[in-house]
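Predict the assembly for these two chains.
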Amino acid sequence: MAQQTKAQQLLERLATDDEFRARMEADPVAAFADYGFVIDPEIAPGSVTLPSKEHIKANADLLAKQFEASSGWIVFCR
Amino acid sequence: MPDFAALLRGDARLDSKVEINLLCPITGDRISLTERHVEFIAKLSAQQWHEVTCLTAGDTLTEDEIVGLAERGALICDAETTWATRLRDGESRLTAVGWHPQAALYHASTQWHAVEGDEGHRDHDDTAHRERLSAHASAHGRLPPHFHHRDDASTRHALPAVAFDDPFAQVLRARCTTRHFETGRTLSLADFTRVLYGTFGVMGTEVLAPDVVAVKRTSASGGALHPVEAYPLIIKVEGLEPGFYHYEGSSHSLALLEAMTEAQARDLATALTIGQTYFAEAHALVFHVARLDRHHWKYRRHPKAYKAVLLDSGHLSQTFYLLAAERGLGAFYTAAINDTDVASRLKLDRLSEIAIGASGLGIPDSLRNQLHLHPEPHDPDPTPAPVAR
């Protein structure tokens, strides 16, 4: 659940933040670590090619539909 | 989850591989299994013990693999280790309490620990809220209409108008959720006690059979068992030290479980309501904790028992709301709580005592009005929808 939230936040940032996208391409291990994810440390810096922001945004939206509702809407009564 | 490896190669897609997971009703853990594991487990009996050495013959799992499954919580075993004892005790406890198996599974796998939403720091003005709803509608389609009509009705009868304005009706109409409170003021003990007693106080008892005592509160309860206990988190109430208490209905008193400062109580309220900072402005929260051992004593392995317990909390919530409205106080109820953390803080037996939600009470801050409903009055349409022909 918390991982889903982190993944969503990561994708949304990759879909909007050019600076973070550049960091992801330069040092993906550290960028993923910011969100608590551990990836293959052998990935060579500079070998990363990210999808377009639009493509990632669409993927983030798809992921959001699969989420458990731990974020977005809070269950409270009115 | 996203496929991170693909992402770094320029492709954005979800990681959609098929997995087999066992959901543990004791721990709530999701335990990954292989097809070999499933094939092995399917041959085991739930009622009798098997010698591991007898299970390793032929084309099956090795002893190490079987022990590995037990260590991960997929199998009950008789080892005298902490993890094995925990599972054995948990299984016995589930049976003794009378949990319905599917309810236990649902409950264990939907518990929250240290969840923190963004409610406390997101923009709550009407425009921001409208934009979030519009984005939601774009993603998930239109909300079904607020008024529902059956197309297959054979006739419709207009009912006489109701003059719903007597004092009781006015209290019902005044019920609302408040999320802004005057943190600088102290809630009077009389106001707090009135709402607490009116909701959780014991109006009477009745011996139904030897050692079987029903309790009468102002709200309905399945079997008159009233399994829901009140645990007030006092923040700023006249004459009461801030802290976590248990309300004892037998003597109408509060038993202090943990004292703390007002600031600590507000921080705890925020953490237990997953970061809903506005609820920490309240003068007191009251956590609803059900004693399932009492409730399921009667409704053992009952398919509707878990639902009935949740309904009890709903009944109590509505009564709490009405008592607050009658006094001009603000109230709320939230099911968005870190229930696992409530259990830890209150030292509850998590297989027999479950935190369901939290009511809140306080002096409303009339100068702030975000996050509140402002409904237009509704007069029934005198023209009913047409009937089917």
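The CA atoms of residues 21 and 33 of chain B lie 6 Å apart. Chain B has two domains: 13-97, 163-362.
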